[in-house]
Amino acid sequence: MSASSSNYVNDVLVSADWVEDRLDEFKTDAPDLRLVEVNSPESPEEDFPSRYEDGHIPGAIGFQWDEDLSDAVERDILDKPEFEETVGAAGITEESTVVFYGNGWIPNWFALFAYWEFKYYGHEDVRVLDGGKDYWVNNEYQLTEESTDFSSQEYTARGPFEGIRAYRADVEQALESGLPMVDVRSPEEFTGEIIAPEGLQETAQRGGHIPGASNVPTASVLDDDGTFKSAEELKQLYEEHDVTEDQAVVTYCRVGERSSIAWFVLTELLGFDDVENYDGSWTEWGNSIRAPIERAE
Fold first, then answer.
1. What is the 3-state secondary structure (H, E, C) of 48-114?
2. Which residue is catalytic, options 253, 265, 269, 270?
3. How far apart are CA 241 and CA 182, in angstroms?
4. Which of 16, 22, 170, 236 is most deeply buried (CB count within 10 A of its CB)?
5. Residue boundaries of the structural domains of the chain
């Protein structure tokens, strides 16, 4: 299923050609293969079919990150019963091979958050379309506006597996212990010049970053076409920031979606054993009274 021969530890990336060769299988009601487009809350490009209803890969199901995979009231991911209901209603079983892809200013921005959430609840066979929707569209693969519906399935989650998720107390402990933390936001967010990317709602009272965190912006793990860099390049990138596999690592961003990409790279592509995604991220930390921060003078 490899997207390329890039020496990744796990075979979790699939190529656009691999997906195209299986379009008929993705369209069937049998739940063996499921293709899922995950949209962000915002449409980043007016001339790009960024919304599911404006064009998607044939056979794909459409998930909206903020509506289908999040609890807006709690500002949290879905709880276990809600996750089971949502996934089962989409025609997915525990045995399904689920391939995610998505749009965004960064390819697969919210698709990787869905991947992380599925892993949190113990889904075993999850894949990602390398390059996401941007690569698919830019290379003129087939799109359709025809929606996809499958028969509902019973779904029982194995998780949650808390070892891949960080809470505020975990971050405080990492801070005290001097463990590496990877802030994947833009340099302007990291320094506190801005609180959120342009066009997105600001969700914190303060700008800056968690003391001691390294800034490794999400786009730095991708090639120009939106596909992931090779394992050798990725390992070197993180080593330059003193992030190595012999330590526990915490990743974070603004609301936990961009940092899920770093979690994916470190865990699934490079094989780090102990990486936690802090999904509360700057929305929580930047609003927390007495939480220490650093910023550019």
1. CCCCHHHCECCCEEEEEHHHHCEECCCCEECCHHHHHHHHHHCCCCCCCEEEEEECCCCCCCCHHHH
2. 253
3. 9
4. 16
5. 13-160, 163-285
Per-residue pLDDT of the chain (297 residues; tens, 9 = 90+): 444 457 999 999 999 999 999 999 999 999 999 999 998 766 555 567 778 988 999 999 999 888 888 887 788 999 999 999 999 999 999 999 999 999 877 899 899 999 999 999 999 999 999 999 999 999 999 999 998 999 999 999 999 999 999 999 999 999 999 999 999 999 999 999 988 887 777 778 899 999 999 999 999 999 999 999 999 999 999 999 999 999 999 999 999 999 999 999 999 999 999 999 999 999 999 999 999 999 976
CATH classification code of 13-160: 3.40.250.10
Residues 163-285, CATH architecture: 3-Layer(aba) Sandwich (3.40)
13-160 and 163-285 have identical folds: yes
